[in-house]
Amino acid sequence: MTSCETNQDFFRKNIEQHLDRLYGAALGITRNPSEAEDLVAETVTKAWTCIDSLQDTSRFVPWMKRIMTNLYISSRRKAEHRAGHERYIDEADCDEPFSLFERLHQPFLLWWGNPEQEFLDNLLGDDIDRALESLPESFRIVIRLADAEGMTYQEIAETLSVPVGTVRSRLARARSLMQKALWIHAVDRGLVEQKDPEAAS
Amino acid sequence: MSEDHKNPEPDEIGCIEAINGLYAYLDGELDDPEAVAQFEDHLDHCRHCFSRRELERTLSERIRKSARERAPDELRKRLRNVVDKF
């Protein structure tokens, strides 16, 4: 903030400048445009009430996203508590770790060139969105914070109020589930061709 | 493990260690420069792990791109009104 710039000027300018990023983050968390708009508005209001806690003004966006994530998680926990159950945990059917790379290199699959490249070339943005959407919320959020927001494990841990070790393990499980969802979707869409379908069963 | 994998020397890492550390490397969480150098040295020599790194990196990039959105104009107006009242 410059010396003659008021808190309000600084806040207004940064909201305008970074609104697309804030909305994108909110949409990634809520998966619902209307809820995303409300979450951004709620975040802006909350952030203004604690503007003095922003120590480093160059970290405005991460600071806002942390407030946003906390607000969302808090509201979900309250809603689930009211409904009589708590789903915000590492539930998910995480049986075996799943690796897309290992699946692409199964010997009975038919590829004309580089398996990863062929697979990625056929992958659409919608496929990624759908796979993300299929994840339990706690996993979807941790992937968004790491990959889309570029937060460090420490920042994610502070945002979610969990130990760094939990971030590491949750992220690994989330990515495993994400890759499994992508794989199932690719098989359904016929993107994966088998030399001998019976060999795969 | 890759066909072209060689048994690691004492100061090198093998495929299992490389794969175990892959996400930490891609997420920029390997703090020790020596660990980063060992990891990258392994990738230079192992096609299998190199390809796996490329796939994981590309998937993360796709997720990052899928997050790019433009905020609706209505929201922009709504927030201007909110901030003006502060």
What does this structure look like?
The complex is a heterodimer of chains A (201) and B (86). Chain A is mainly α and 201 residues long. Chain A is 67% helix and 0% strand. Chain A contains 10 helices and no strands. Chain B is mainly alpha-helical and 86 residues long. Chain B is built from 5 helices and no strands. Chain B is elongated. The mean pLDDT of chain B is 84. Chains A and B meet through helix 1, helix 2, helix 4, helix 6 and helix 7 of A and helix 4 and helix 5 of B.
Give a short summary of the structure.
Chain A has helices at 7-30, 33-49, 60-82, 100-104, 115-122, 125-133, 137-148, 153-160, 164-188, 197-200. Chain A is mostly helical and 201 residues long. In chain B, 65% of the residues lie in helices and 0% in strands.
Q: What level of helicity do the residues of chain A show?
A: 55-70%
Structural class category of chain A: mainly alpha
Anisotropy-based shape of chain A:
elongated
Helix/sheet category of chain B: mainly alpha
The stretches of 5 or more residues of chain B where confidence is low (pLDDT under 50) are none
Number of strands of chain A: 0
End-to-end Cα distance of chain B: 60 Å
Report the helical percentage of chain B: 55-70%
Number of helices of chain B: 5
Number of helices of chain A: 10
Query: Rounded to an integer, what's the Rg of chain A over CA atoms?
Result: 20 Å
Unreliably modeled segments of chain A: none
Number of strands of chain B: 0
First-last Cα distance of chain A: 62 Å
Tell me the β content of chain B: under 5%
Shape of chain B: elongated
Oligomer: heterodimer
